[in-house]
Amino acid sequence: MRHKSIVTLCMAVLAGTLSMVAQAHHSLSGQFDVSKSFEITGVVSRVEWVNPHTQVFVDVKQTDGSMLTYKFESLPVAMMRKAGLSKGELAGDGRPVVVTAYPARSGVPRLGYLLHLKLADGREIQFSRVPGAEQP
Amino acid sequence: MKPRHLLSLVPAVFGMGVLLAAAPATTPRMPDGKPDLSGVWDNGGGIDFLKPQTQANGSVCVTGCAPAAPAAAPQTAAPAPAPVGTARPRYKPEFTAKVEDLKKRQQKEDPVLRCQPPGLPRLGPPDKIVQTAREIIFLYEDVSGPFFRIVPLKAGVKRGDDSESYFGDSTGHWEGDTLVVETRNFNDLTWLTDDGAFHSTDLKVTERLTRRGDQIEWLAKADDPKVLAEPWQLRPRMMQRTDVEMAEPAPCVEQDLSHMVDDSYHSNPR
Q: With contact defined as beta carbons under 8 Å apart, do B60 and A116 qualify?
């Protein structure tokens, strides 16, 4: 009986967690394809520290030497602050970072929703869970 | 004293330490004896689900992290309090279709998605309180921008502009140790929640703030007899005192809606 109760409780917690994740993703699904992600490497050139979504711009060097700028939307400023993150932290130190993001559904090129940043010093920042990735 | 007796003191001393650690902080008071609500308050910011984690190497996980190890359960769990309030208001039958229609078109209709003020009680508890004997100032860092409210502690204070507004006209008074803030004179441009819960200009919002040590319990009730079937009692929110000073709120700059490809609900928790 007790074992059954614990199993039931675990299932309820799991269901609640999945529901929360689904809801968080659902709120983005009108704009981004939350079923997949893409990855680029570049240098953060600008951060807009604004609500309702912070914006991170990343310059990516092309094979012909030209530069293309990607725009990534991310969490509100209050959420960043609660996690101890600042504008300076996201702006980085000029060294390349690896960005993982949801692609935009509108077809606008180089627009995405920021999920994960791998910094040049080895630290990582997960803003939202990357589809298919294990939780850190 | 024999070692055995000394050992018998250990649980008692340990127990006293636990009691001291668990004792609530004293509630500071103003010179007039009223509780002092001044300070910066972590009210969850509507992001109660956010449990950021920082690892030893400085890596940060903001959302979608693996669940942290659960805290040890207390040996004698207190009975859970009866649930208070509801997540949504209940409307008169003739208005439910309007609410459902607005809810379906939330992305196009919710004023907050266009950086408009959220109104009350959607704004939630304040992030900072400055209290004097004559008035109390509420400061907010909201997703829609920085907001403030001035709450005089006596009725009839003349305002520079008495037009109906997003946050209305507030007056406060004390009922024992509870600050009661009553607000009227709202415009009808805001929603009570993020799913089509409109209101009329007859809206009256009553907030009750009770400080106990380092926490304030925030209760709110919205009454709009023109459209609501009954006054709506919100679920309580707890405000936790923090030593981290409030930062300059970021401006709200909407730049997402033009990229929406369907009418999916777009959450904006507070």
A: no
Report CA torsion sign: A85, A90, A94, A98. positive
Residue B261 at interface with chain A, using a CB cutoff of 8 Å:
yes
What's the pTM?
Answer: 0.80
CA distance linking residue B115 with residue B187, whole number of Å: 16
The alpha carbon of residue B86 is apart from the nearest alpha carbon of chain A, in Å, by 18
pLDDT in tens, B177-193: 999 999 999 999 999 99
The answer to whether A45 contacts chain B (CB < 8 Å) is no
- Predicted complex ipTM: 0.74
Domain-wise residue ranges, chain A: 1-30, 32-126
Fold observed for domain B85-250:
Lipocalin (2.40.128)
State the DSSP code for B70: P
CB of B29 within 8 A of CB of B204? no
Q: How far is residue B176's CA from residue B139's CA, in Å, rounded to a whole number?
A: 24
Asked, as a colleague might, if the bond just before B121 is cis with ω within 30 of 0, I would say yes
Contact B199, B221 (CB under 8 A): no
Domain A32-126 sits in CATH at 2.40.50.140
The closest alpha carbon to A36, from A102, A110, A125, A104, belongs to: A102
